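Task card 7
Instruction: Convert sequence to structure tokens.
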Amino acid sequence: MTVNIKENSLLVHVCCAPCASYSFEKLINSGYDITGYFFNPNIQPEFEYNKRLNDLIKFADIKKYKIIVEKEDTDSWNRAVKGLEDEREGGKRCEVCFKLRLEKTALFAKQNGYEGFTTVLTISPHKNSEKINKIGAEIAQKYDIKFIEENFKKQHGFKKSLELAEKYNLYRQNYCGCIYSRKQV
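Output:
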């Protein structure tokens, strides 16, 4: 089956509304036709997952952004990070988590005619953009799809995301999303 590629179309992995706020604006201003892709089986407990998803949907409705919500697969995530529960934030567990989510994003993008994919994860000052971009580039090569390397925290991107979160009254969490990072807060 041949899938028609939509020029300048970008599937953007998104974890929450505040991270999407500035990142989406920057990508649109760079000429991309974006669709947000919410796939985050790492976000626990369920009320936290729902808070983030509901605020993303609220924000997307306000801004008229397209969002796809992928069914979470917490069991797969738990299996993937088994044995890494005690890793520090930013360590091997996070690399496995980034890879799981970005691979799912790349596959969806490839199967549905997107020219490329990226992630908003690099806006966080707690995330290693170089590591995330390396993982994204490796996955892109594996699936023969374009990956847009970004470091959204550059040029005060994180600060701008905070301002937009306040402007739109978006929920800002105090941990990455997984139960192990929550224990470290």
